[in-house]
Amino acid sequence: MREMQARAFEKRHSQYLLIKSPPASGKSRAMMFLALDKLINQGVKKVVIAVPEMSIGKSFKSTALSDYGFFADWEVADRYNLCLSLAQSDTRKTAIFSEFITQDVDDSALPQVLICTHHSFRYGFDKVIEDGGSIELFNDVLIGIDEFHHVSADDSNRLGAILDGIMTQTSAHIVAMTGSYFRGDSVPILSDSDEEKFDKVTYTYYEQLNGYEYLKSLGLGYHFYKKSFFDALDECLDTSKKTIIHIPNVNSLTAETDKYETVGRIIDIIGEVESRDEETGVITVRAHDGKQLLLADLVTDDAMRANTQAYLADITSRDQMDIIIALGMAKEGFDWEYCEHVLTIGYRGSLTEVVQIIGRSTRDSAGKHHAQFTNLIAEPEADKSTVTSSVNDLLKAITLSLLMEQVLKPNINFKRRSELNILGKADLPAGTIVIDDTVNPPSDRVMKILNQDRDEILAQLAQNTENIKKYIAAETNNVETEAVSDSVIPSIIRSKYPALDTDEVRQVQEGVMQYMAINRQGGVVEGKDIPEDAVIENERFFIKQGTEYVDIATLNAERKGQLNESDIIKERHLPADAKIYNPKTQSSSSNDSNPSNGFVKVGSKFVNVNNLPIDLVKSVNPFHDAYEVLSRTVDKEVLQTINDVVYASRSTVTEEEAVLMWPKIVAFMKDKNRQPNKNSEDAIERRMAEVITYVRNQKAKREANSHD
Q1: Hydrolase among the record's keywords (predicted)?
Q2: Residues 685, 674: contact at Cβ < 8 Å?
Q3: Are 460 and 512 in contact, with CB atoms under 8 Å apart?
Q4: How far apart are CA 7 and CA 204, in angstroms?
Q5: Which tens digits make up the pLDDT trace of 105-154?
Q6: Whole-number Å distance between alpha carbons of 452 and 432
Q7: Averaged confidence pLDDT in the chain
């Protein structure tokens, strides 16, 4: 098994399991392993796997897993693979689904696996119930949901409602998989009560890239254009790279003409059409540099498009395709392993969609060392009525880097100090942040949120343009940034986890900000990877005395003078279970001052992850890099336009912020014996004064309304 598959298989006894893993990491095969173990060893009688599109169903075709050392083969009868035949009607598929679910569960001679689309699953379930069947027919059935981000807890999402009913009324098992790290976009996938039941397995892009043979890096880039994106295409399209171009929807603000004209003009920019294959529809283009390119048009919805798709599905070498132009296609489940560059024109409102687009370029392939995502975005124009909307779209687009940088860095885990006392720290991963729980220990719920949900908190932070604008407005003021964080982040946490008490909200906020601060500084570096001549802040130095180690700071001057350089051992090189002897107290103790061997570079020094300066953590601006991209790339007039929109909303106080800030205002007035001053040099005090003004105005409005 591959690393991600083995990690998922360790959780095979979980009734509800959510696997978050990048495209091409082996999720389909992992689902097979889990399903077979549940069928053979755990009493599950049937397996239903639902995928969003028929084309993705091929990933679950019959596979001789025993050839690779597994204890059973994956077998799917053609009749029950509803993704095989395009000719089958929805009515026919629904009838087969119903037949499969209602047949005798104890007859092992009957097929035990069915593959269908999300669509067929919804209609098949409804058919079973309409025909008088009970939801209890799903007892002891494993339901596998591929591309789980298509599900939603929203009332209008039928699949989400069906899963909720199955979870609450049956003994069914559920394995859900997604290539996106961010639930949905604005509506959660599951209700909080349902989500708490799921065990989670997360495999990051960082882990995937480290495990690849060829592909070692992924770049996220932005290219800004004035007036027309056609004028900018030549600058950001490298025809020597295997590329997918996603054009804008005709109804979007980015679209400049209809989709057919868009394809034609892009081809003109690339070169001149020489021919079109009559069987596959593949277009041969002579590029302006004389090179001959093969291009696939997945936009033109004529009879030939199905042939082109079939051709792409059978590609086995780099030379068979160079450029694909797509609209609403070539996203999730689309496999072209040679793709090196995805160029997306225009803002995409869905983070999940963008993550799926990026995933088209991240499959490992011989000769591919770097994958690139480029988003071509319009610069906002100050004289247009849509300037605010344009700025909002631009800010949301570039903040994708905030989210993706979290999963492109080494993983970070939170552990309580008391856990180390039980488990030991010899095998503690480098990216471990230890929380001191001797006083006010964090609850299990807090630890679960920090270790499993923190990226989802950041996703909500990044999807709210008002939050982005508040942070960018505070870009040059660390104290003001802290004030924004103290308002915005707790608000998100309270909304997402209403059952948390005040201390738990604070603990989650502190953990999330530590996480952001570490990645903002470049991520965690293992002690063994720090250059020997690098300076580690507050690092101690030791000599070995028998089986113990002595801090040279505790030695007298005479003994220090006798030391040779070769005798001195840096703290970073101490064994995890080292015993430290103190000659002054004549006692020994464990080396537990810094239980983690992970470090962050701050300036010219390395700092242990558990000793990050509190002002660095509190003042971290999650949108700093996004603003840096703008500052370096656009001209000063465009940057001024963006700043004008950002600062226009700077002084806006919401009722939610007022409620959150009020206890601090009361404490301030009690401590200072005065009200906050709106002209104070302290940004937090100025914000408190603005909140008081807001509260007074709201109170006056309510009193006026009460007299009407």
Answers
A1: yes
A2: no
A3: no
A4: 12
A5: 666 667 899 999 898 999 999 999 999 999 999 999 999 998 776 665 45
A6: 14
A7: 82
Alpha helices, DSSP H, located in 46-149: 90-102, 118-130
**Nearest-angstrom CA–CA distance, 165 and 174:** 12
Contact 286, 274 (CB under 8 A): yes
**What is the dihedral sign for C-alpha 536, 540, 543, 549?**
negative
Query: Within 10 A of 30 (CB to CB), how many other CB atoms are there?
Result: 26
Q: How far apart are the first and last CA of the chain?
A: 72
3-class SS at 561?
A: helix
Highest mean pLDDT among 135-144, 483-492, 699-708: 135-144
Nearest alpha carbon to residue 606 among 507, 506, 530: 530
Residue type, 410: P
Q: Is 65 exposed, middle or buried, given 0-12, 13-18 or 19+ CB atoms closer than 10 A?
A: middle
Q: What 8-state DSSP symbol labels residue 258?
A: -
pLDDT in tens, 650-659: 556 777 778 8
Angle separating helix axes 683-707 and 655-672, nearest 10 degrees: 120
Q: How many CB atoms lie within 10 A of CB 458?
A: 24
Q: Residue type at 532?
A: E
What secondary structure does DSSP assign to 156-204, as a single string? T-HHHHHHHHHHHHS--EEEEEES-SS-SSSS-SS-HHHHTT-EEEE--
Our measurement of the distance from residue 627's CA atom to the centroid of its chain's CA atoms, rounded to an integer in Å, reads: 20
Q: Which amino acid is at 107?
A: D
Closest CA to 266 of 341, 336, 325, 347: 325
- Residue 6, Cβ neighbours under 10 Å: how many? 12
Query: Please, are residues 472 and 623 in contact by the beta-carbon 8 Å criterion?
Result: yes
What's the alpha-carbon Rg for the chain, to the nearest Å? 29
Six-digit token pair at 682? 């302290």
Give, in degrees to the nearest 5, the angle at Cα 314 between 308 and 319: 85
